[in-house]
Automatic annotation (TrEMBL):
PANTHER family: CHROMATE REDUCTASE (PTHR30543), NAD(P)H-DEPENDENT FMN REDUCTASE LOT6 (PTHR30543:SF21). InterPro entries: Flavoprotein-like_sf, FMN_Rdtase-like_dom, NAD(P)H-dep_reductase. Residues 6-132 form the NADPH-dependent FMN reductase-like domain. Pfam families: FMN_red. Signal peptide: none annotated. It comes from Flavobacterium azizsancarii. It comes from the Bacteria. Gene3D superfamilies: 3.40.50.360. This is NAD(P)H-dependent oxidoreductase.
Amino acid sequence: MQKETIKIFAITGSTRRNSSNYKILKYISENIKTEFKIEIFEDLAGLPHFNPDLDNDDAPKEVKEFRDKISEADGVLICTPEYVFSIPGSLKNALEWCVSTIIFSDKKTGLITASASGEMGHEQLTLIMKTLEAKFEDETRLLIQGIRGKINEEGEIVSEETEVALQDFICNFEKQFIEV
């Protein structure tokens, strides 16, 4: 009997090409069980600025496609840096397009903040995702501080402590979906 594929929609909160946050999502996609298929969304910059007047059945095409990806996924992973003690504006913009929907309600979610400090951004991401009614636990949240010294240009985790934390995170994220 073939196992059913578990679809995960992963969002990198950085608009920078090959960012540390993208590398972490790639690492997770390469180290998660084979039942999981992870699609990494990298086009936050392609979403129009949130405008409540456009947040209706006729929302912009890019917004509809983004929302559909979240709706169709079994779970969502978000990995973001912290900018000026908050989440990046592009990620906040994307999440604002979801406020009037129920697409995150009870959606199994993993939250990672990987930045220089990240504490404030991590708190804000947690609050926003609670507001959107995403389903996550402390075990499916991870703060990685000083990320630049913990992952190299090739995307390899060079900090043993960070690798252990990511492996624990992956295991806890998987447990939401399958018995391990």
